[in-house]
Design brief:
The protein is of the alpha/beta class. It has 5 helices and 10 strands. A hairpin with an 8-residue loop joins strand 8 (115-124) and strand 9 (133-142). The longest helix has 14 residues, at 175-188.
Length: 189
């Protein structure tokens, strides 16, 4: 389990366990707060990262961030550097098959009751006078092992020993950092 305080718990009620979380739904994410002395916080966020100026630019929400391009894309660079998060889940779904006959596959780790999915977060507001809101995305990587038979991508799942390193506010993240975490996660898996 995560040792964290809850922030915005009233809003987080919509993110209670749900087997059918969809993009733009409210999810819970774990972050480390520099403002609170490095305390771990479980906070609600909108699934679909939006840059601060997204309403003006028309940029769509980003539900997944490719590990291979985190440092190269402006959308990911700032969140990777300063606001990494973990999205807790018990499973995730991958869909396979043609259009109207797609089959969902629930993917979970039989060795652990929880997955810690690496993510990125960003503050966003729909208008200059609107309140700020957290948005988040999940980092994906090329699928490993048998999962590649179902889908070519998979979330970057972190073992417990890498969660603190991923969300540490004292570490500025870059492409090398993200790839190092992914390699360590693969070695631990």
């Amino acid at each position: 389990a995560y040792l964290a305080e809850a922030v915005g718990w009233e809003d987080a009620l919509t993110a209670l366990p749900n087997w059918d979380v969809r993009p733009t739904d409210t999810i819970l994410m774990l972050v480390e707060s520099a403002r609170r002395g490095g305390a771990r916080i479980l906070a609600p966020a909108r699934w679909g990262l939006l840059a601060p100026g997204a309403p003006a630019t028309g940029e769509p929400p980003r539900f997944n961030a490719r590990l291979e391009t985190l440092g190269a894309r402006p959308t990911w660079r700032e969140p990777l550097a300063r606001m990494r998060c973990v999205v807790p889940a018990t499973a995730y779904y991958e869909w396979q098959g043609p259009g109207g006959a797609r089959t969902p596959y629930a993917i979970r780790d039989p060795r652990a009751p929880r997955l810690s999915l690496a993510g990125l977060a960003q503050w966003w507001r729909p208008a200059p006078t609107a309140p700020w809101r957290l948005t988040a995305t999940v980092v994906t990587r090329p699928a490993l092992g048998a999962l590649a038979d179902i889908h070519d991508r998979m979330p970057l799942a972190l073992p417990d020993e890498l969660v603190g390193e991923w969300i540490a506010t004292g570490r500025v993240g870059d492409q090398g950092f993200a790839e190092g975490i992914a390699a360590a996660a693969e070695d631990a898996g």
